[in-house]
Every structure is written in C-alpha cells, then in structure tokens.
Amino acid sequence: MRSTDVKGNQSDKEDVTLNKQIKNRHDIRKLLDDTILQLERNTRFLETKQYLQHGKMSVYEHCIRVAEKSCDIAWKMRLDVDYTILIRGALLHDYFLYDWHKKDSSHRLHGFFYPGKAYENAKRDVALTEIEEDIIKHHMFPLTVIPPKSKEAWIVCIADKICASEETLKRK
Predict the structure, then answer these.
(1) Where is the HD domain (predicted)?
(2) CA–CA separation, 4 vs 23, rounded Å?
(3) Which residue range(s) make up the domain with 32?
C-alpha cells in the first residue's frame, strides 16, 4: 500500500494511520485528528488560530470544519476519494497566514488572490500532491476563474461555501 507522509512523500510502506482503507466514520475522524496533529507539529498550521476568517471563527477552526464537512459529503455520497488528500487539502485551503481584515493594500481583493498565497505557503511547508494543489488553488471558484479539476477539490469547494455561509450568518 502506498502511504503519504506530512511532506507529501510517498512510500510503499503500509501506514495504518494515514492511508488505510476507510471503513467507517471513526476511521475518518482518526485520520483527520492524526493529520491535524502532524500539521501542527510540522508546519505553521497553529498560526491560523491567530486570524479570524468569518465572524468570530478562526481560520484554524474554519479549516477543520471544512475538512469535516468535506469528509461528510464524500462519505454520505459514497464517493471514491483519497481521504488523506481530501483532508490535507481542506486543512490547508486557507493557509494564507495573515489577517485579511486589517487595512492593508496587499489584502485588497483578498477573496480573489489568497488561494495563491495559501498555495505558496503550503508548498513552502509541505510537499503537495497535484490534487492538494488543485484543492488549495481552486476552492474559491468561481472567484478563481479556473474550476477545480478533481473530485476532492470540488468537494472542498462546496464544503467551504457551506461552512463560510454558516459562519457568516451566525456571527453576532
């Protein structure tokens, strides 16, 4: 069985936590928790706790919610997806690492341009698969004019819009 480590490197060793067959929701939750822990230990993912995304929701919380929603969509629709890649891409989709609410000319038109910044940051910190790149670069479609190519990227694109809508409407 091929496995993928946090840097995106693949090997033929069997990895029981990252690339096992998903049999139930518990397996998905375990994979999600393991991936979060790996990103917290090996990247700047914890920095996303410093930045607000929608309402009072941090980027960190938002990305975890998007990963959970993405997995729910894939599971409920019985889609044949790579959950390891789906989860990593979802967790890194908003990895832009700045406060877009602060008045700064570099944050102008944030929604159109931050996927590129998130991609550059993620690429700097981990080796990304093509599908993870697709997820990060195209999750803001149609603001990013190029649509997602993979199933996983379409799922994250949809999950992100659901979560963002909920977070925006619930803010007080």
Answers:
(1) 59-165
(2) 19
(3) 3-170
